[in-house]
Amino acid sequence: MKNFIEKWKVILIINLFVVLLLLIVCLRQYIGINRFFILSFLGFFVPFFVYANILFVLYWALKRKIQFLISLSILVFGYFMNDSFIKFNDSNSNAFADFSVMSFNAHGFAGFFKIDNPNVKEDIVEYVLRENPDIVCFQEYNIEVSSMFKEYPYKYITPDSVDATPQAILSKYPIVSHGAFDFKNTINNAIYADVKIKQDTVRVYNIHLESFRVRPGSLKREVPTNIFNRMSSAFQKQLEQARLVKKHSLSVKYKTLICGDFNSTQYSNVYRILKGDLKDSFLEKGVGFGNTFDFRILPFRIDMILTDLEIVSHKNYNIEYSDHEPIKASFRVK
Prior knowledge:
The chain has about 325 residues and is of the alpha+beta class. It has helices spanning about 1-25, 35-40, 45-60, 70-80, 120-130, 225-250, 270-275, 280-285, and strands at about 85-90, 100-105, 135-140, 155, 170, 175-180, 190-195, 200-210, 255-260, 280, 285-290, 305, 310-315, 325-330. Strands 4-5-3-2-14-13 form a six-stranded mixed beta sheet. Strands 6-7-8-9-12-10 form a six-stranded mixed beta sheet. The radius of gyration is 21 Å and the shape is globular. The chain starts with a helix and ends with a strand. About 35% of the residues are buried. Its cofactor is Mn(2+); Mg(2+). GO terms for molecular function: endonuclease activity; hydrolase activity; metal ion binding. Keywords: DNA damage, DNA repair, Endonuclease, Hydrolase, Magnesium, Membrane, Metal-binding, Nuclease, Transmembrane, Transmembrane helix.
């Protein structure tokens, strides 16, 4: 009997700890956690916290214990406090739209460790052309492929004056003006272009925020303090970069679209800063987990499209041409 009580206490303590972690994530926008980087990282593990709490609900319910209300309460609270990481929207890709945008971190068109494909460069180009978006925002671009995108006569690529990994905006519509951000002490950067679509102009931001440079397979080989210090520094840079882009976008008189590789989830302050009053195409029209990054068993959505345009559809792709997967959304200007 004593052993049973001790086991029951241990399970309850673990349950309360997982509830506390999810509660912190739910309240992130109301408490000052910017200085405590480890708390910001909890947003990456929201799916795990949710699954764990569901298991605790089932466990206590099967035991006919009132403790099932502990996890059930935080799940209900979290659902109303935050947008769910899984969506069941009715996204009609055939509905009328004025234009579409694809965002894709193409990893330099060089493939990545999981694939051995000497033709990956050509395969990516062919795939994008087949999907036929009106505007493509590439992160980690390769300027060698520019000549392959003849269907996109208007292009803006990170200028040579910015010492960073190239980003690119390819468009079927005229680009009437453009510019670049020069993030300090990093190879990450962002660019923007004003695109003339029919009688309207839309400002398109293509951003690649600071990378954590952490791979699932390398975590066991690294000293924990080194990982923590690198991730803390990266998150601080992300916040600075996000504030810079957001401040810039608020001065724009056109409809705005911010897309790219955020390297942060929807539960981070980085995302909250960039989103502001904008809408998230996945949350509005997406289906499923919206996974965009290969990170073993956890669904990671770190590539986003945010806008104040009317969102018609959103599509996630499941392809292995990069460590990221592309996303595409369509919009109406008015």
